[in-house]
Amino acid sequence: MLDKLGQNISTALNKIKSATLVDKKLIKEVIKDIQKALIQSDVNVKLVLKMSKDIEKKAIEENPPKGLTKKEHIIQIVYNELVQLIGNEPQKLDLDPSKKSIILLVGIQGSGKTTSSAKLARLIQKRGLKPALIAADVYRPAAYKQLQQLAEKINVPLYGDETRTKTPIEIAKDGLNKLKKADVFIIDTAGRHKEESGLLTEMKELKDELNPKEIVLVIDGTLGQQAKNQAKAFKDAVEDIGSILVTKLDGSAKGGGALSAVAEINAPIKFIGTGEGVDDLETFEPKKFISRLLGMGDLDSLLEKTDDIVEEANEEDIEAILKGKFTLVELYSQLETISKMGPMKQILSMIPGMGASMPKEAASLTEQKLKRYKILMDSMTEEEKENPELIKTSRMQRIARGAGAKQEEVKELLKYYQTTKNAFSNLKRGKMLKMGGQMGK
Ligand code: GDP
Fold it and tell me: pLDDT 10s digit of each residue in the chain, 441 long?
């Protein structure tokens, strides 16, 4: 399994952590270990060599920045280089709202393609565009029904052929004609055929006929080396894969397999699936992914990450809070910051003594809550977010409806907001900045 990559790199870094003397010889040795780990995971050799040269140069020549020891500095250099290896900045799905676009999802059966089609539709819907789903998997009998149920749930139009008499191309074309009101068409394709070559030919035909704006390759995040082979097979067939969507990263999988898929086909990961629900899709953030891959389970790395995030945190928000302004707008950014830091479970596991004592359910419940709160706030108007006191019963009902939630949840969110607001107003400037670490600022 590719989670081994994370383990191997962590083991190499531990040599640095536990050394009494960090000298050139040790640095070179550790870099060799990292090289080996990456090459074993099929990351492109040229990339690995360039990366290790960069690490070596920085580790030997650069002085640690203020506040970091030599050891911490080297760990940070390795971490940053790994982040760059997979793209550094999050990549967005680039859609032109004035044009109709087609997104073709490809991947093998069981990868999570059908679920991801609906999740993508939901995300696009949240961006204010009008998605439609087309069920072009005629191989798996239950695929149409599954997508139909998901489409109903998120209120997105669907086209498909339950009788399975049409070809996937016919279905797609009919869907494009019938669902004229939509501006983004998401096409779910087959993930299995009698023979693999049949599947790949079908994908190529779909691509040639439909000329999609983006082909998204869906990869199961729990896969190891197979991820690379799958990526290669699809890339050879359709040629231009625009992005990768890695599913099932909510479990214990660390998604290392995805890294070699990226290296293999040179397409960025844009999304990750973090659960079975339609809202469980996140835009991919390389920093978060690498921390997770390395299982950085210690306080140092938490502080490192927190520092990073303090830099990124919106200064205007901090200013506003310090001046006593704390509306739902600020609460929203605060939740965003917390979710940027990664799953709560992971953050808690970095705090000594905390990981073990926290029941798993409690931690994941909090994560789930964060997500729900954000969804609720997405269905509020700007005016409501700026003036939460406006939200009385009828507005609560509307917000709950818009978010597919119960009114109680809106009440609960407002209560959470009030508690946080009170906590903030009790804090003085210095105290609050210190607490930022705990609150995820
Ligand atoms: P397909 O054959 O590629 O269309 O795969 P499906 O969409 O039917 O997904 C296969 C299984 O994986 C289903 O049970 C999904 O609920 C599950 N699944 C898909 N994405 C995720 C995810 O991000 N996390 C988890 N935990 N399960 C997922």
Answer: 346 777 888 889 889 888 888 899 999 999 999 999 888 776 777 778 988 999 999 999 998 887 778 888 888 888 888 888 777 778 888 888 889 999 999 999 999 999 999 999 999 998 889 999 999 999 998 999 999 999 999 999 999 998 889 999 999 999 999 999 999 999 999 999 888 899 999 999 999 999 999 999 999 988 866 888 899 999 999 999 999 999 998 766 666 677 777 777 888 899 999 899 999 998 888 877 777 777 654 334 444 444 454 444 455 555 666 666 778 887 777 676 666 555 444 444 444 333 333 344 434 446 677 788 888 998 999 899 999 999 999 999 999 998 888 999 999 899 888 877 776 665 434 344 444 434 333
Burial class (CB in 10 A: 0-12, 13-18, 19+), 180: exposed
CB atoms within 10 A of CB 54: 14
DSSP 8-class letter at 430: H
Identify which of 115, 199, 252, 283 to mutate to test ligand 1's pocket (most ligand atoms within 8 A of the CB). 115
Dist. CA 394–CA 392, nearest whole Å: 6
336: Cβ below 6 Å to ligand 1?
no
250 C-beta closer than 6 A to ligand 1 = yes
The three-class DSSP label of residue 139 is coil
Cβ neighbours, 10 Å, residue 397: 12
Asked if residue 273 has its Cβ within 6 Å of ligand 1, the reply is yes
> Which pTM was predicted?
0.65
The rounded Å distance from CA 113 to ligand 1 centre is 7
The ipTM value here is 0.99
SS3 222: coil
Distance (angstroms) between ligand 1 centre and the Cα of 220 equals 8
